[in-house]
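Lecture notes, structural biology module. Today: joint structure prediction for complexes of three components.
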Amino acid sequence: MFPIRLDNVRFAPNGRPVLAGVDLTLGGDGISVLLGPNGSGKTVLMRLVAGLQVPDSGSIDWGGAAAPGDAVAMLFQAPMLIRASVAANVALGLRMLGLSRAERDRRVAAVLGRVGLADRSADSARLLSGGEIQRLALARAWAMRPRLLLLDEPTASLDPTATEAVERIVREIRTEGTKIFLSTHNLAQAMRIADDIVFIAAGRIGEQAPAARFFARPQSSEARLFIQGELPWRISFPT
Amino acid sequence: MAQTLLDALALLGDLQHDLLAIVLLSVTVSGLAVVFATLIGLPLGAWVAVSRFCGRSAAIVALNSMMGLPSVVVGVVVYLALSRTGPLGTLGLLFTPSAMVIAQTLLTAPLIAALTRQIVEDAWRGYAIELRLMRYSRWHSMSLLLYDCRYSLLVAVLAGLGRAMSEVGAVMIVGGNIYGFTRVMTTTIALETSKGDLPLAIALGVVLMTVVVGLNSSALVLSRWAMRRYG
Amino acid sequence: MANFLSDLIDRVRLGLPRAAFGVTLALAVSAQAQETITVASTTSTEQSGLFQYLLPAFEKATGIKVHVVAVGTGQALDMGRRGDADVVLVHDRPAEDRFIVEGFGVDRRDVMYNDFVIVGPKRDPAGVRESADVLDAFKRVAAANATFASRGDKSGTHAAELRFWKDAGIDPRTLANYKELGAGMGPTLNTAAGLGAYALADRGTWLSFKNRQDLTIVFAGDPRLFNPYGVMMVNPRKFPHVRREAAQRFIDWITAPSGQATIAAYKVNGEQLFFPSAQQAAKRD
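The predicted structure, tokenised, for the full assembly:
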């Protein structure tokens, strides 16, 4: 499945170019953060990497294969919830894995404990707050033990406490061997959790570098402008 | 008007034994028909909602149009099929309650399917991507959506029940309105009206509506309870 | 919960069709537990209430349950032609004879007769009350251009009405106020009452008709208004599934003295509606 390679990928739905020639290589470890302003094509790029859509031209392969082989999980800004309990919603991802009922229940209970929702297990999912819903979605993805976890602006509508909880869980999932690919336009979040940065602007990858180097010495002018726009003073990145 | 109504309700007393049998038959025939129609219509509607195939738009138009299928037309078609000279004549089902169940099932299934299709498709739009990622098969997507939309689908089923209990054209033709055997509420109302006994016809209409309201109220109470209990 | 439901649905998917089929079969089978025959007859006979009086007596004597499907005479004979009935009991002699000749029916017998009456508005604008006979009555309706409500549904009553017009030398379709309704006797009377029109009705339906408004009998008694009923078995050679023995017992019973007496004993508001007419002659094909 890794490395995931995109070669000159273009995507222009309804004639409007969203991705205009993307070259990207993603390794199988750590947290890669897809950073860029709104409208830069982050969501579309995530979907292509997840295998949900095909590019108009150019190629994607997952470790040489034409499709992602192992489990891929993805989190959206507004996750899907069904009219059922929290536990049932978490179990949704396990249906197709061919597990026994006992194994499913075990995984669900375990993962709910780790995201701090164990006491809400039997409650109706629709009663949760925004932050709790994202933790539920993370639990659902985590229970699937995915090889790759994509998160599309997962904390855009959450308060700082909820955001911190989500980031903590994402780090834990990373330590268990899942590759994380997270998109955001929040510079501070990128600084907190990224191992490496993929900077995207106007449908093109401006820069890809380990986080420390990116923030200390951004190579492309767009990146520099983006960083400066967000933070008007230069910040020294802890080495 | 009020006096007529009172006279009418008094008239019902004469019919007591007959009336009970008639009401029971109505509920049984329409109830069974709706059960079968639901078993056909729910999966059919859900399948069309989540599938892509050549002629899908035509199928949707067909389903929606069949919601307005005239009951007499269904009655005539089923009659010709079940007639001794028809293809299914050897079953000997004409002029029996079974024929009425068949006709009402054919009448109600497209209605339930058409409503299901719209309800499920609306939900599908929100869930499709995530279900695809979780590698859900079409069958599992369908059953999940049907479960998730269960409260809306209940109303679709109730619409089918309403259609079945209120129609007269199909059951009259395939049932024959045989006294003590295939006479239901609607055919009795039609008969009494044609005999000029309008007060009795209205009284029976009131009984019919009471039964229908009763069924719908029970459904509401049941769904509220389920919502509170299971969310 | 979603998992539970998926498992449940899988189980139900297999079990329910079988259960449903079983229930349907039970419904059909239970209908045949007792011996039954299907008699196609006319709405006017049914609405007179005769069957509800007559059939329980028959069932008591023989144990056979009779299912009466009441439609117009034309439709009843069509049912016989399709083999959807075992016995046909109607009141249109020419059509019955045609039915026998075409080979769809056997063993036609007279059963009873009732009579038709002409009903109309109390004020009688066409002066039908003064008619010499039934043809004169129809002529008067035409001459006064009065509204006439016709059943127009190929029933025995409708056929009789058309014969009267023909014998009176009038084509009713040329009359400006001739209303062809395509309806049963009751609905036709409803319409006649609403329009203040004349109509030809069988006495039985009229006697039990409750929505008379301004209508009343304006002419009756002419022998030409007598309306004979005939009973026939649907040809079992053409339709082997016809319940021959049971149908034969029905025909034999209503033409025998006991059945005939029961018919004569049926009264509405103290008035006898049907007059027995079966001959004790040998069966004819």
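Point to remember: Chain C has eleven helices and twelve strands.
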